[in-house]
Amino acid sequence: MKPKILITRRIPEDILAMIQETCEVKLWPEDDVPISRDVLEREISDIEGLYCLLTESIDDALLAQAKKLRIISNMAVGYNNINVEAATKRKILVTNTPGVLTETTADLTFALLMMTARRMEEASQFLRQGQWKTWSPMLLAGQDIYGATLGIIGMGRIGEAVARRATGFDMKIIYHNRTRKIEFEERLGAQYRTFNELLKESDFVCVLTPSTPETQNLIGKKELERMKPSSILINTSRGGIVNEDDLYEALRDQKIYAAGLDVFSEEPLSPQHPLLTLPNCVALPHIGSATVKTRREMARLAAVNLVTFLQGKKPPHCVNPSVLEKE
Ligand code: GLV
Fold first, then answer.
1. Do 129 and 241 reside in the same domain of the chain?
2. Residue 78 beta carbon below 6 angstroms from any ligand 1 atom
């Protein structure tokens, strides 16, 4: 008998077919409507595997009903939507999709940095709205990227890929991380800083740390006040790490120059959100890894994690591998 699994969103046909070879699949067939909590609660008690997205909250209450569940395969590198501790307690394996989205997400991070520094969204609106009357010396003048100091908070795979891009712009690279990365420092000429030193010194502060209870509100009023008035904040990691109310005030009062955000504490962000009234805030709808090739790779890797495990082998990317250890 094939194990029963649930997939919480439409995924590419060939990847679905690959899963169906070894699993009995229930599929939430929508593309732009997330699975409802009711359906998830109804289905969870009967499945051995769950293939889900970062839009699904897999919490303790849900897992309490997941009597047969053995694996949660998240189609994302971040897994803050899953209560991993609760899963581990119930011996449920959690897997994710690191690696395949590193370069794509670093590209978007750098694009946001460039958009905000050179006021590209504002400039494009200016032109479309018929406001372009003439070339003038200070019209839409922004900040330089080349030669500026880039401060990266969280030096993981994506942080390093952003730093590599920065070397092509002759930027000075500083970083803060829980542990120092000496080999990275030597290879890219990057320098370690304390968190406060980084905030004070950077022209661009780039948030690339995972979302954990410790990183909630990591950047709030106090931290924004430490940044230079000419500095720019970029967040392509997770909402909640930057306090949005404090950021709104800092941008409105020009305590910092601009912000580029791809992630928000509540997604989707309301079109009425105050941040969207500010010309110095560029906001994107969580598209860091959104290229056709990378999203396919993520979908495929999530499928490989799921199928490999259900066939009795160790999947390539386990978040809580301790559940695989024999007692
Ligand atoms: C996207 O945000 C991911 O975590 O993969």
1. yes
2. yes
Looking at the fold, whether 169 and 273 belong to one and the same domain comes out as yes
151 within ligand 1 shell (Cβ under 6 A): no
Residue 68 DSSP SS3:
coil
Q: Please name the residue whose Cα sits nearest to atom 3 of ligand 1.
A: 76
Distance CA 2, CA 310 (A): 9
Q: Are residues 89 and 112 in the same domain?
A: no
Q: Which pLDDT does position 249 carry in this prediction?
A: 98
Alpha helices, DSSP H only, in the chain? 13-20, 37-44, 60-64, 84-89, 102-117, 120-128, 157-167, 182-188, 195-201, 221-226, 244-252, 292-310
pLDDT tens-digit map of 213-264: 999 999 999 999 999 999 999 999 999 999 999 999 999 999 999 999 999 9
Using the atom order of ligand 1, give the atom closest to the CA of residue 286.
2
Catalytic pick from 286, 295, 300, 317?
Answer: 286
**Which atom of ligand 1 is the closest one to the Cα of 97?**
5
Nearest CA to ligand 1 atom 4: 78
Q: Which atom of ligand 1 is nearest to the CA of 289?
A: 1
Give the pLDDT of residue 97: 98
Yes or no: say if 17 and 43 are a contact pair by the CB < 8 Å rule.
no
Ligand 1 close to Cβ of residue 156 (< 6 A): no
Residue 269 is part of a domain; what is its CATH number?
3.40.50.720
The count of structural domains within the chain is 2
Q: Do 306 and 258 lie in a common domain?
A: no
pLDDT at 326: 80
208 alpha carbon – ligand 1 mean position (Å): 11
Those residues of the chain that have pLDDT short of 50 are none
> Do 182 and 128 belong together in one domain?
yes
Q: Residue 124's domain spans which residues?
A: 102-283
- Placement of tokens 């709030």 in the chain: 220
pTM value? 0.97
Residues 106 and 89 in one domain: no
Per-residue pLDDT of 15-36, as tens digits, reads: 999 999 999 999 999 999 999 9
Please choose from 105, 108, 236, 296 the residue to mutate so as to test ligand 1's pocket, defined by most ligand atoms within 8 A of CB.
105
**Are residues 107 and 54 part of one domain?**
no
